[in-house]
Amino acid sequence: MYTFELRKAQSVSDAAAILAQTAGKPLAGGQTLIAAMKFRLAQPGTLVDLSGIAELKGIRREGDTIVIGAMTTHAEVAASDVVKTAIPALASLAAVIGDRQVRNMGTIGGSIANNDPAACYPAGALGLNATIVTNKRQLSAEAFFKGMYQTDLAADELITALKFPIPRKAAYEKFRNPASRFALVGVFVAETQQGVRVAVTGAAGSVFRSKPLEDALAKNFTADAAKAVKIESSGLNNDLHASPEYRAHLIPVLAARAVTKCG
């Protein structure tokens, strides 16, 4: 690990100011960033610790929306009665992230900001058409995720909260990598006020929506309709864990399981 300076921010504005002055990196749960630094894959000169900023934590319901602070841990989302009552699929998603340490240290804001190609939360955010709130603006999930480890965040911009519209029904299914517990493929299916949304993670360089599945389920919201969809393998990930063809096969299979979960 390279040397770095650790500075603890007292507020969101304080954190943004430090980032602007130092070109540093925000430190949330550290489950990805610290590991990257240990392997010398990242070399931030300054880390801005966000753990002391109370306004970044917490879960609440505002009308037909669940608002989750960026520094809320995966374990807190999984255990939240507010989330389990309104969007049980989101609580279930949080409960299958990593292992116990990751769930107790990792944060929803950190996961969304990192946009790992195999992370679970991006699928939940895109599938539910979440709004990402920063210290400067509000972005739709569609506009936020740009590509592998890429988002629309500026260098001095921080995620402060996520707003999840409550769907009519939703479910998440993932096929886990047995070692990392990341998703070889994860599929989030939601029937919303605006229609059916299907978001896929782990299969490509970044989370994406599956229009073939959305079109099929809009006509017939059944597991059989999902299983009948053929997904093209071109552009999907190819690695030692799974081929593009296998991932293409998994997407409708997992979508069908998610639809069954929806009831």
Which key phrases capture this entry?
single chain, 5-stranded antiparallel beta sheet, 4-stranded antiparallel beta sheet, alpha+beta, 12 helices, Uridine Diphospho-n-acetylenolpyruvylglucosamine Reductase, domain 2, 263 residues, globular
Could you provide a short overview of the structure?
By secondary structure, the chain is of the alpha+beta class.
Task: Report on this structure.
The chain is α+β, with helices and mostly antiparallel strands and 263 residues long. It contains 12 helices and 14 strands. Strands 4-5-10-6-7 form a 5-stranded antiparallel beta sheet. Strand 2 (25-27), helix 2 (33-38) and strand 3 (46-49) form a beta-alpha-beta unit. It starts with a strand and ends with a helix. The mean pLDDT is 96.
The average pLDDT score comes to 96
Largest sheet geometry:
5 strands, antiparallel
User: Gyration radius, to the nearest Å?
Assistant: 18 Å
Question: So what's the CATH class of the domain at 169-262?
Answer: Alpha Beta
What do we call the CATH homologous superfamily of the domain at 169-262? CO dehydrogenase flavoprotein, C-terminal domain
Supply the number of helical segments. 12
CATH architecture annotation name of the domain at 169-262? 2-Layer Sandwich
N-end to C-end Cα span? 49 Å
Oligomer: single chain
- Order of strands in the sheet with most strands: 4-5-10-6-7
For the secondary structure, the number of strands is 14
Q: Provide the succession of SSEs.
A: EHEHEEEHHHHHHEEHEEEEEEEHHH
Unreliable stretches (pLDDT < 50, length at least 5) are: none
Question: How large a portion of the residues is in β-strands, by DSSP E?
Answer: 25-35%
Briefly note the CATH topology name of the domain at 169-262.
Answer: Enolase-like, domain 1
Which structural category fits the helices and strands? alpha+beta
